[in-house]
Amino acid sequence: MKTLTNLLLNLSLGIVSYPAYTQSSGHIRLQAENYYNPLTSKQVSASELANKLGVVITGNDNDKHSVHYTFTVPDTGLYTIASFALTDEYGTKLMQAAKTKFESLFMEMQLNEGKKTKRVVAVPWNIPQQELGKFKLQKENTLKIWLPKGVILDYIDIAPYRAPAIPKIAANYKPAHTPEGH
Prior knowledge:
Elements: H1 2-13, E1 21-22, E2 28-31, E3 41-45, E4 53-57, E5 67-72, E6 77-87, H2 89-97, E7 105-111, E8 117-122, E9 129-137, E10 140-146, E11 151-160, H3 168-171
Antiparallel strand pairs: 1-2, 2-11, 3-4, 5-10, 6-9, 6-11, 7-8, 7-10
């Protein structure tokens, strides 16, 4: 009975951990509909979404998170986190009226116990995938997201950071002059 009570409590708080889609490269995809907080958000369907389901906020209460991911990465280190989100009817109207990048829709996110930060989740030129940044992750992590009104969150992608390759022309470059001491 205690296990069932704990499961129901975790479900109501939106902190249940579901299996994540993982590739051998360490790439993880976390579907929003598996991690949403039913107190502040709900599932919606749209044919353009990966599993035909996404998450939107209900009401205007932004005190509690909309989505609470718990996930494990293979190794500690630097990872890139990206979102895939569409706009609903309200968000589409906002984006059509927008003239600059400053009118993008922003979500708030909190990684583990760090500070809440604002990140672009939808832009006026209709690009659903947005890189949220590069973050140092532990093996066990939590990610809380507060969605803005007008956004349908589909999933979060997490992948090990790969530094860009050095162009061949620059790989063997020797400057004509170097400062003394180098």
